[in-house]
Amino acid sequence: MKNDFPYISLKNVDKADLTKIENYLHFGGFSAIKQSLGLSADEIIDRIKKAGLRGRGGAGFPTGLKQSFTKTSCEVCLQKYVVCNADEGEPGTFKDRYIMEKNPFAIIEGMIIAAYAIGANKGYIYIRGEYEQAIRTMQAAIDDCYRYDWLGKNIAQSNFSFDIDIYIGAGSYLCGEELTLIESLEGKRGYPRIKPPFPAEKGLWQQPTLINNVETFSHIPFIINEGYEAYACIGTAESKGTKLFCVSGNLKQTGVFELPMGITLRELIYDVCGGMLEGFEFKAALLGGAAGTFVDASFLDVPLAYETLKQKGATLGSGAVMIIDQATNLKDLLINILEFFKHESCGKCVPCRIGTTLIYERCKKAQLLPDDINWLIQQTEYMSRNSLCPLGQSPILPVKSFFTYFNV
Amino acid sequence: MQNKQTEEQVLEILKQFKPEKSEILKALHALQNAHPLHYITEEAITQTARYFKLTTGQVYGVVTYYSMFSVKPRSPFIIRLCKSPVCYMKGSLNLWNYLSQKLLLNENNISSDDLFTLEPSECLGHCEQAPAMMINEQVFTNLSPKKIDQIIDDFKRKYHEK
Known about the structure:
The complex is a heterodimer. Chain A is α/β, with parallel strands linked by helices. Chain A has helices at 21-26, 31-37, 41-51, 63-72, 95-102, 104-118, 132-147, 178-185, 214-226, 228-232, 265-272, 306-311, 330-344, 350-363, 370-386, 390-393, 396-405, and strands at 81-86, 122-127, 163-168, 209-213, 242-248, 255-260, 282-287, 293-295, 320-325.
């Protein structure tokens, strides 16, 4: 395992309490803003592109590309928005909570730079309602930024002004999807919109909107400060930088770990987490959350990165790594996940509304025959083709991977 | 304790928010948290609609969409027990049954002493210390029946001291 990598999202969080603005400033906080304000928007976006930063929410879309789309999509629009997606609802994922609670100013700094690059003056941080502690920490950090003139009018004596508001979700997994989140931000029920238009063209209040995950924003100050070369040399060919892995299960150590992209499952379990707890054996892992894929022991040496997992039909997703041991009934776990989709389906698209219930019911059968399994895969394929948003498109991931690697 | 919210109280809360649509969820949270029984009343929905210049139906639609909101009376304490995959693997189902018996829940999942409402929750994001639950805004992790006994007793004691 490579030990010589810099921390990015969690930079210095072990050295001081970075929720205090004095400490953040002491470690050179906000220097990336000062530098950015001396650059042109295109120069910033170019650096993000060259760094190879990809969206950390799960889809892995190139961040620089998203920024340039949002910047250029509408020259006459009066208002553009930057939205930070902190509606972390993917089961098994808790990294965004961790960054918000430990390093809130890095997120804000990343948002300010992104806003300057695309020409936005208003930002929102959409935090799920269950994250009380994170909401308090972020609100305090925003208040501090206003006090120290890092938010508001004429940031760092420049012509650039930017405001951030916190928006609090109310318990909807679906609102983690970007266009649904925007609907929710507009004070409506969280129903997905039809894509295109994408948020870069018509997002919040039909204006160009840049929407990124918490972890993505927290990487921007590093790229500006240390240069894109320093960033791009971490990770694998197509997945640059570090990633926060959320490890859970019956392991000696669990939690959020920042590691270079491309670390293997074996290194993660045995080197980073110290192995399984006494009496437990590794049986499977669920990567990327409920909308993720089951993998078996044959994946222990596959690098955890977007392209390497994709090649093998698996997904990195949000960085959730749920380790499943021999004591867990795998089929019960699959039923648990299908119940989750059934509960969270909003009902807008019929294939998803009915499909999530049908697959859940069928999976509960005492014994699944080959016909049942084929039917389950067919149904999830149909749902994935005919649903608007990732919720209906996702059950195929756990279902198909489950039956590929495990017998029930 | 009075288990009602007056029209004046609702208006007082609504006035803390700008009458912009992106403030609705915040306002609804505030209304629900201020109600002793942690729910949003029909009257509050009507007033919210008027305040934000929406129809009652639109606001009702929003309230009923989000699982953290309730249009039914609940209780001073809402227990959200996580049942998502990691907590499930670590025995959250047993804890659900344990809590149900301990609290003697009625058909609306409200305890016999009317203090607690038990609700299942999707992932609370504390998987590294599963199983987890929330009581109102507080999070409790690494749960066991013994730990739950302590937590519930604490809440009861503090409530009765007030």
